[in-house]
Amino acid sequence: MSIILKRNLRSPWLLKQVVACYSSKSGDAPAAAAVKTIPKNLLEDKQTAYLQKENGVIFDKKPFKIHLDKDKTYSWCLCGKSKSQPLCDGMHKNEFLKIKERPIRFKVEKSGDYWLCNCKQTTHRPFCDGTHKQPHIQAAVK
Ligand code: FES
């Protein structure tokens, strides 16, 4: 939980949602997985995760569980237009779409299953932090 509190969460409401999401014994995806903390992107200091202020379009209203290997570098889709969600497929390079967001490169500390954000609104790119529970995100995808 300390990693959550150290980060700059946008609002008390969001902090409450994150705590509920990661401490609940039942509920939706991350809580059910008994995740205690949000994983760390080992490349976050070297990549663009915090340099890009804009979020992409909302792709889905829930996270996506994926197996990641600790020795691989991944690119998480930030723009929300990739057809290989939650990972980048290069769609942002299509000049006709005029997409400003770039993918977030990331690595994980150990191999395993991770919940990656698929709403593209997380403040802990690329990992789900419970932001998707906000009403406007839930309402955006039918
Ligand atoms: S899917 Fe959970 S924060 Fe985006």
Automatic annotation (TrEMBL):
Single Gene Ontology MF annotation: metal ion binding
Cofactor (UniProt): [2Fe-2S] cluster
SMART domains xrefs: ZnF_CDGSH
Protein name stated in the entry: Iron-binding zinc finger CDGSH type domain-containing protein
GO CC, any one term: mitochondrion
Residues in Iron-binding zinc finger CDGSH type domain copies: 61-98, 101-138
InterPro entries: CISD, FeS-contain_CDGSH-typ, MitoNEET_CISD
Originating organism: Drosophila willistoni
Classification via Gene3D superfamilies: CDGSH iron-sulfur domain, mitoNEET-type
Pfam assignment, any one: zf-CDGSH
UniProt keywords, alphabetically: 2Fe-2S, Iron, Iron-sulfur, Metal-binding
